[in-house]
Q: What sequence folds into this?
DNA sequence: TTCGCTGCAAAGGTTTTGCATCGGA
DNA sequence: TCCGATGCAAAACCTTTGCAGCGAA
């Protein structure tokens, strides 16, 4: 059973669990993200955290974000960001995305109408497309690794 | 009925339909993408197109890609690329992504097990996650626009 | 005290832009 | 001929990195 800790010691506990130092920069970044309802970019996070620690640098934000992702506390919401990729296939289809090399392969729509599955979306959001992104490891990277 | 045209005049026809000039650079970029089975980045496309037009610049590749996307011939396979976005929500969930402002909102998993729906994936791809990305226009942008 | 973390500044990678020139219609 | 497209170079944007000094343990 997790002990009922206040915010500060809960954060220290978390850091100890993962073997990282509990700096106040990390705590501020952590709390700002956990209080967010959106999915902030490092830039936006920097703005928010600076209200508490005016001198914190953007590089530190990036480092904190990577650290928390590495230890599995957060994920990257923006899948396969990086260079644009062109898709000339206009028929509905989904993507197999390799986490290691970033390669993308189409797979057919196969009669799965996701817009129907997600029929009860928030009424206020005007949806036009639903794409399934299937993340994993491609054949080449399975062979190549280790 | 579309006339049966050879490659060159088919391309000219397409350009005329969309009111853009049929330059040989655009034709080479167009053909390279249409012959691709992957989803090339501008960089990779540049390499490939240079086999035909050694002096073509990377800026032209970017401009062509934007043009073909603008007229609706191609899409962007890499959804919401750009700055990283942090996602501290570790429970399975999907995303509402606004095409205009890039904002992302979580929607609940709602019992839809996409990995089961996509049960018959290519055996060789080792899938670990399926995320549905629901693209459209958020409330704020619906109000803001025009 | 020690080692990991921060802040700064520089560099790396991707994309856009301004402008002179070229070429398609 | 005319206007839009290209090529180049510079700038803008996003992210990573190296290193000296700081601070958590």
A:
């Amino acid at each position: 059973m997790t002990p009922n800790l206040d915010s500060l010691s809960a954060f220290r506990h978390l850091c100890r669990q993962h073997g990282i130092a509990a700096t106040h920069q990390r705590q501020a970044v952590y709390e700002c993200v956990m209080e967010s309802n959106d999915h902030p970019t490092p830039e936006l996070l920097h703005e928010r955290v600076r209200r508490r620690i005016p001198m914190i640098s953007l590089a530190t934000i990036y480092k904190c974000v990577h650290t928390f992702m590495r230890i599995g506390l957060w994920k990257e919401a923006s899948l396969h960001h990086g260079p644009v990729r062109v898709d000339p296939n206009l028929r509905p289809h989904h993507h197999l995305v390799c986490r290691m090399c970033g390669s993308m392969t189409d797979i057919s729509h196969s009669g799965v109408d996701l817009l129907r599955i997600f029929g009860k979306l928030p009424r206020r959001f005007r949806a036009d497309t639903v794409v399934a992104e299937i993340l994993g490891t491609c054949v080449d990277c399975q062979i190549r690794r280790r």
Q: What stands out?
A: The mean pLDDT of chain B is 86. Residues 89 and 106 of chain B are 9 Å apart (CA to CA). Chain B touches chain A through 63 residues (CB under 8 Å).
